[in-house]
Amino acid sequence: MRPDDEALDVSVPLAPVVAAASHDASGEQVVTRDLSGLAPPARPAKRWTPRRVVAVPAAFDHPHGHRIIERVEALGIGVERLRANRLTGVRGDTDRETYARAKSTLAIVTCPPSRRSLQPIAPSADWRVDLAEGCPAHCQYCYLAGSLSGPPVTRVYADLDDILTDLTSYLGRGTVTSRRAARADEGTTFEASCYTDPLALEHLTGSWRRAVEHFGAWDAAVQLRWTTKYADVDSFLGLPHTGRTRVRFSVNAGPVSERFEGGTATVPERLDAMRRLALAGYPVGLTIAPIMPMPGWRGHYGALLDRVRDAVDGIDRLDLTAELITHRFTPGSREVLLGWYPRTRLDMDEASRSRKFGRFGAVKYVYPAAVMGELRAWFEGELTDRLPAVRVLYWT
Ligand code: SF4
Q: Which tens digit of pLDDT belongs to each residue from 304-315?
């Protein structure tokens, strides 16, 4: 692990990296490339500055809680110490005010006990591990709507070291990717972005860097996975990841990303970040989501795939996957999203969708089978033609 004083280094220089060889989850040799000649990003990465940062007393019991506080204070942001282990002062007079206050608040807390017991997360990974909950972006289709209770405050976990140490007990017990012949070579997989966006918070927490290093030093068949709509990757380029972290970039066609993804990096910025990580030897991926059949969708998604092709051009030993996820919503997420974004133009018309029932009878609204079939056939065909190096992990 990195000494604490280094964890306070919140500047993100493009550090020259010495070429080094190591082994990935399958035992294959992975070369961390010399990045000294890599061009800097076109413009500085977008970073969130919370208006209010609070820390609960329990956060002070953990070294990583102190690291986060020092990191935040080094950025010139004051940290308010709460008297009890519950968040207060977030609700405003109206729902809009509550949303705005919550979305601009960062809370340094500990992981709830229920979250410390990991659950399978199909189809992405064997296990879901949470290092934070909440996200400062404003996607009008946000996956978190309806999943989280209370105002959408971003909570980051101070007990990171304990969370990472506990992962050992899940090794070799995976039932999702570990049981699929096509993905068993990934080892036991851990998904760390179900309830947050890692790169939106990394400059404030340093948590995902430590996680990448933890997996890099974990001499076992394991994979850390996370997906992001941000592009602030410089601090990851020189890490000893040993090929055990796959970073996926959530991308979409122009009409979706430009209209519905407020506060995120642009798609070209995300693809540039993906290229930089791939050049640094990371396995990378695309999360194309949420796929929507808007007018002219073939042209728009075709342009996206061409952008991806350009972004990965000439990368030696490229390891690129794609996860394809169509737009869906539940009655609960629809209600929350319409509260957050009352003027949204996002299509959430139940009448034009098919109903799908989950394991416990929960309903979700998906595109009708004919539309799904058309989308799927197009994506699978075009990915093969335009990006022959890509490996599609799943369609849903
Ligand atoms: Fe929600 Fe992801 Fe957008 Fe954050 S980046 S607002 S988690 S959809």
A: 999 999 999 999
Looking from the CA of residue 137, the nearest atom of ligand 1 is 6
Residue 135 near ligand 1, beta carbon < 6 Å: yes
Here the tokens at position 272 are 């540039």
Q: Which atom of ligand 1 is nearest to the CA of 229?
A: 5
Q: Which comes out higher in pLDDT, residue 40 or 200?
A: 200
The pLDDT of residue 215 is above 70: yes
Question: Tokens 């990003």, residue?
Answer: 41
Q: Is 324 left (phi over 0), alpha (psi -120 to 50) or beta?
A: beta
Cβ burial, residue 286 (10 Å; 0-12/13-18/19+): buried
Cβ pair 71, 6 in contact under 8 A: no
Distance CA 344, CA 327 (A): 15
**Partners of 395 in the β-ladder:** 324
CB of 229 within 6 A of ligand 1: the answer is yes
Cα(99) to ligand 1 centroid in Å equals 14
Task: Kindly report the backbone phi and psi dihedral angles of residue 126, in degrees, each rounded to the nearest multiple of 5, phi listed first.
Answer: -65, -40
* Domain total of the chain: 1
User: Does the beta carbon of 327 sit less than 6 angstroms from any atom of ligand 1?
Assistant: no
CB 110 within 8 A of CB 160: no
Residue nearest to atom 8 of ligand 1 (CA): 142
- Residues 39-65 have pLDDT tens digits of 555 455 579 999 999 999 999 999 999
User: Is the minimum distance from the CB of 132 to ligand 1 under 6 angstroms?
Assistant: no
Strands 354-357 and 363-366: antiparallel
What is the CATH classification number for the domain harbouring 135?
A: 3.80.30.30
The domain of 387 spans 3-395
Task: Report the distance separating Cα 266 and Cα 247, nearest Å.
Answer: 17
Torsion sign (Cα): 168, 147, 329, 271: negative
Question: Is the CB of residue 139 below 6 angstroms from any atom belonging to ligand 1?
Answer: yes
3-state DSSP of 307-343? HHHHHCCCCCCCCEEEEEEECCECHHHHHHHHHHCCC
